[in-house]
Each structure stands twice: as C-alpha cells, then as structure tokens.
Amino acid sequence: MNHRAELAREILGHLRSQRAAGVGYVCLGTPREAVPEAARPVTAPPARAPETAPKPEQHALIPQAAPAPEPTLAPMAKRRDPGPEPPPLPFDPEAEMSLAELKAAVEGCLRCKLGADRTNLVFGVGNPAAKLVIVGEAPGANEDAEGIPFVGRAGQMLTKMIENVIEVPRQEVYICNILKCRPPGNRNPEPDEIDCCEPYLHKQLAVIQPRLILALGKFAAQWLLQTKTPIGRLRGKFGRYQGIPCLSTYHPAYLLRNPRDKKLVLDDLLKVKAVYHGEAEADIELFQ
Ligand code: SF4
After folding, report:
1. Domain for residue 156, yes or no?
2. What's the total number of domains in the chain?
3. At residue 179, what are phi and psi to the nearest 5 degrees?
4. 95 contacts 122 by C-beta, under 8 angstroms
5. Residue 144 belongs to a domain
6. Is residue 278 pLDDT above 50, yes or no?
C-alpha cells in the first residue's frame, strides 16, 4: 500500500472513532472569524500581470485620449477684501424668465454705489434671440442720458463695425455692458461694482444663449474669459465663456483715440464674421 492510501485509512479510522465518541463534526483548520485581526497574516494583493506595451500596429486601433490643452490665460486674481455682502438680487437666478422680465426686475437696482447717481439704467438693447452678443464695459454720459448702450461717437463706430464688417444689421445682435450704470467721470469699473452687477450679465447671456460673443475692451474680455491677461494678448483670439466662443478686440472708444489700431480690429471682426455666417469654426486658442 502506498503512503497516501495508508494515511487516508488512518484518517478514516480516526473519524469513525470520533463519531462513536459522539463528535458531530470536525473543524478542518481555524475558522477565519476566530483569528484576531492583528494576528492575520498580511497578504499582498495579487500581482497584476505586467502590462505589455501595444505593438506599433496596435496603436491605431486603441482610442487615445486627447491631451488637455495647455493653459494660455493667466487666472483672475482672487480679491483679498470682498467687502460687505451686496443687497440680495431682485430676481431668482435659477428661475426661467424673459429678457423683458429680467430688465423689469433690474430697473430699480441700487446694489452698488453707482445706482444713486444714474440718470438711466442701461440694461441692453437688441434681438433677445441674437446669435451674437456684444459686451462692453460701462455706460458713458450719452448712454446714461438715453438709457441705451453705445450711442454717441463710439456707438457710431460700433454700428459700422457690426454692419460694414460683420455684415449684420445692428438690431439683429444684442448689445450690453458689464455695468448697467455709469461710473462717475467715465472712470474704470471698480471690482465691487462688477461683483454687484455681474449676475445681471450672467443672466442676460443665459437667457439669450448666443452662439458667439464679442468682448469690447479689457474689462469685458477679462471678465468673460476670467483672466488677468492683458487685452493686447487676448484680442483676435477665441476663448470660451461657459462654452460659448468669445473673441475679444479693442473698444470703439479706444479706437477713436488710437485710429492706427483699426486694422487690428478689422482682422478680429473678420474672424467673427466668418464664424457668424457659418464660413468657419471658431478656432479656440485661449484656455484657462
Ligand atoms: S451698476 Fe449694476 S449693480 Fe450697480 S446699481 Fe447699477 S445695475 Fe445695480
């Protein structure tokens, strides 16, 4: 008899004697629950089979993830002193509403210090379903007097830019500013004023849902693209505002003072024209 058969016979005999002695079962090894956690051997996870590099001919069959684009926009600096909380918004940002309803809600706004001295709040004008929204900085004296954005000489230049270069009637686009009230002496918008007023522009753009945005000047470009990159490096390139292609160029008021830069603006507007009329895709070059 070989050794294994002899061992089996001995085990069988032992089990029979145990049963005769009243033992109902035997435990083969120590139950896992009975072993204290600390006493359990630490077992290494099963080793993964080494990944073999695909052969060159397999590369074409394996979907490759597109590399993330390199950031090209300097992030906007966080304000050190955000100041006191502004008064509550006069509308529900989540609510569905028309542009006319939003305008009516904003009409009496006094969220920032500019509200007290305005003649008219300058909400925005144009097609509420515009494909193109044009965003400037803030109303000037003429706009404050009339309650309409881009009137006066800068407004006339903008009309030429829209109608003669982009080749769209002015009333087909929507025109507005970041600030809805005039800063005194046409000074630059201040950060707390932008903080108070920006929910209105966010909501205008959410309601209109344009296909394209044109930012005029540093403040509009930097706010829409959320960057501190200078306008000289932003202009002429597409970035995105909440997924919408957004091209920046110089403000018409700047062009009135610096007519030599008209050629640059013409080049920028021709890119907007091509995308607006479906002759080209927006070539996004600016990434956050
Ligand atoms: S600038 Fe904007 S936030 Fe300030 S008072 Fe006018 S509408 Fe209100």
Report:
1. yes
2. 1
3. -95, 140
4. no
5. yes
6. yes
The residue assigned the tokens 């404050």 is: 144
pTM of the shown model: 0.77
**Strand, helix or coil for residue 284:** strand
DSSP tag of 130 = -
pLDDT at 30 over 80: no
Ligand 1, residue 196: give the atom nearest the CA.
Answer: 3
Q: What is the largest CA-CA distance in the chain?
A: 116
CB under 6 Å to ligand 1: residues? 106, 109-112, 114-115, 121, 179-181, 193, 196-197
**Taking the mean position of all CA atoms in its chain, how far away is CA 153?**
34
Residue among 113, 193, 195, 203 whose CB has most ligand 1 atoms within 8 A, to mutate: 193
Residue-range definition of the domain harbouring residue 203: 100-276
Q: Write out pLDDT tens, residues 65-117.
A: 777 778 889 888 766 666 778 889 999 999 999 999 999 999 999 999 999 99
37 located within any domain: no
Question: pLDDT tens digits, residue range 151-204?
Answer: 999 999 999 999 999 999 999 999 999 999 999 999 999 999 999 999 999 999
Residue 94 maps to a domain:
no
Q: At 141, which CATH number?
A: 3.40.470.10
pLDDT one-digit tens code per residue, 224-273? 999 999 999 999 999 999 999 999 999 999 999 999 999 999 999 999 99
